[in-house]
Specification:
Number of strands of chain B: 4
Structural class of chain B: alpha+beta
Shape of chain A: globular
CATH topology of one domain in chain A: Rossmann fold
Oligomer: heterodimer
CATH superfamily of one domain in chain A: P-loop containing nucleotide triphosphate hydrolases
Strand content of chain B: 5-15%
Order of helices and strands of chain A: EEEHEEHEHHHEHEHEE
CATH class of one domain in chain A: Alpha Beta
Helix content of chain B: over 70%
Largest sheet of chain B: 4 strands, antiparallel
Distance between the termini of chain B: 24 Å
Number of helices of chain B: 10
Structural class of chain A: alpha/beta
Distance between the termini of chain A: 28 Å
Number of helices of chain A: 7
Radius of gyration of chain B: 30 Å
Strand order of the largest sheet of chain B: 2-3-1-4
Order of helices and strands of chain B: HEHEHHEHEHHHHH
Helix content of chain A: 25-40%
């Protein structure tokens, strides 16, 4: 589904962030990408989303070279990816309801469907009472749950979670992790980027370890070993 | 920030409206001056009326630019003079002393005011066959004044147009930059919208609509300002330029003013938003 082929990323003048990285992620896989801060995890994720282009090499999404497709096609791919980020990336001028509804609108869902679906989703993630609050009126945990709701509401094919538990207490972190496992069991591909050792070791899934821009380990049932 | 954008748009549209008002004043002035310009051909005192009327017919035939042509006989000229100076005893006395009617029969000709048309008429009148009939043509005396008026209005028009274009360009840049500041404040939001797969139009539409709204609000403000200015300035202007009422000019051209203000405002708002947001859609 996602394929990195000899990808190198050099920031000018000569900072190599990724160095000849190649791997493939199949549909329905749960893959964790681990590494120290600055190892290249975020650059790798930004490449899947088309936010960065490789200096050399190719990144494919379902056979399409992300660096070569036009912006309309890129947006179509982004709609098939649900993103959860450490800084949440919520829309600050929209309420909790609108933040979730917006994603559905982007995907062309009609108003009636949105009116029905959003309250259900907000109930599941425990934000039903905060429907009309703005993101800055929520706690860190609540914002992260909202980001998760937003990532899931359109039933995307792939969930990308970049340090999703970085700002959360252990309880909320566990909640997010178990949610990701559930999504994966439902057949969705999950890519988790983290440096949370405990979380990775508990999962017992495929782990790609990056160090100084290179893949140093890629194990089917990996551990956090740095 | 929105207030700043509306404020700049109001200035731009008011400037456009001001130029439109100036155009009205200018047109009125030119028309007034042109109406005061005429060309008179004085015939020798013994020429027959039918010969003069023949010249008149020939002029009408050869110079289609003529707006009006009036035959003033010796008697008519004397009558007009007497009526005009009825209470001036010195002039009446002087006229009695001359004894005979000193006035010459004449043709009074008006065109739409273009000096070239006057020149054309003068050329016809200067033809050899009329030499014996015509005593003098007073065009050459007025020629310099006519040409001066036209050269001044032409310079004013050209200078005004150049200044207007320059001002509009400067103001468009200011509007553009103000809208840019408004959109800059939302750049993180736009980036997030793109990240979740929103299409270009989905992101762009609210900003373009906002730009149009800025334009529409500015139009309402400018329309009120223009209406009130025309209403309160009309009496003062009427003193300087009798016959010109700015408020009536405003009412008569209301549709055009609405078009300039609403069209200009909305177009500026929409186009600026459209161009500015393109930058953020590339990510």
């Amino acid at each position: 589904m996602i394929k990195f082929e000899n990808v190198t990323k050099i920031y000018l003048p000569d900072v190599t962030v990724l160095d000849d990285v190649s791997f493939e992620i199949a549909e329905g896989e749960f893959v964790s990408i681990v590494g120290k801060s600055g190892a290249g995890k975020t650059t790798l994720i930004r490449m899947i989303l088309g936010l960065e282009t490789p200096t050399t090499g190719h990144v494919f999404f379902n056979g399409q070279d992300i660096a070569k497709i036009d912006s309309v096609e890129l947006q179509k791919i982004r709609r098939r990816i649900g993103g959860i980020y450490q800084d949440y990336k919520l829309l600050p001028t929209k309420t909790v309801f609108e933040n979730v509804a917006y994603i559905m609108e982007v995907n062309g869902r009609d108003n009636e469907e949105i009116e029905q679906e959003v309250p259900k989703v907000l109930e599941v993630i425990g934000l039903k009472d905060k429907t009309n609050n703005f993101p800055d009126q929520l706690s860190g945990g609540e914002q992260q749950r909202l980001a998760v709701a937003r990532a899931l509401v359109n039933y995307p094919d792939v969930i990308i979670a970049d340090e999703p538990t970085g700002n959360l207490d252990p309880y909320n972190a566990y909640e997010v992790l178990s949610l990701l496992e559930k999504i994966n069991k439902a057949g969705k591909t999950v890519i988790l980027s983290t440096h949370d050792r405990e979380m990775i070791n508990k999962l017992g899934k495929r782990v790609i370890t990056i160090e100084n821009g290179k893949i140093i380990r890629d194990e089917a049932k990996g551990k956090f070993l740095i | 920030m929105s207030v700043a954008a509306i404020f700049v748009l109001v200035i731009t549209i008011s400037l456009l409206t001001g130029l439109f008002f100036l155009h009205g004043v200018n047109t009125f002035l030119i028309k007034t001056i042109q109406e005061k310009i005429d060309i008179t051909a004085y015939f020798t005192s013994d020429v027959l009326e039918q010969n003069i009327l023949q010249v008149k017919d020939e002029l009408i035939k050869d110079a289609p630019a003529i707006k009006s042509i009036e035959y003033v006989s010796k008697e008519d000229a004397l009558k007009v003079f007497n009526e005009k100076h009825a209470d001036n005893s010195v002039l009446s006395k002087a006229l009695t002393e001359v004894g005979d009617n000193p006035f010459l029969p004449a043709l009074n000709i008006r065109t739409s005011g273009d000096p070239a048309q006057y020149q054309e008429i003068a050329n016809i009148l200067n033809q050899p066959q009329f030499n014996d009939l015509i005593e003098k043509i007073d065009f050459s005396q007025k020629k310099d004044t006519i040409e001066k008026v036209f050269s001044i209005t032409s310079i004013v028009n050209r200078f005004g147009l150049a200044l207007a274009i320059l001002l509009i360009l400067v103001v468009i840049l200011v509007v553009f930059n103000t809208i840019k500041l408004v959109i800059d404040a939302s750049k993180d939001e736009i980036a997030t919208q793109r990240l979740v797969g929103a299409s270009s139009w989905f992101v762009r539409a609210p900003f373009v609509i906002e730009g149009a709204l800025f334009g529409a609000i500015s139009f309402v403000i400018c329309f009120l300002i223009a209406g009130l200015t025309a209403y309160f300035l009309a009496p003062t202007l009427a003193i300087i330029m009798p016959g010109f009422n700015l408020f009536i000019y405003f009412l008569q051209n209301m549709l055009l003013i609405i078009l300039i203000q609403l069209g200009g405002g909305v177009a500026l708002g929409v186009v600026s938003s459209f161009i500015v947001i393109r930058k953020y859609l590339k990510a």
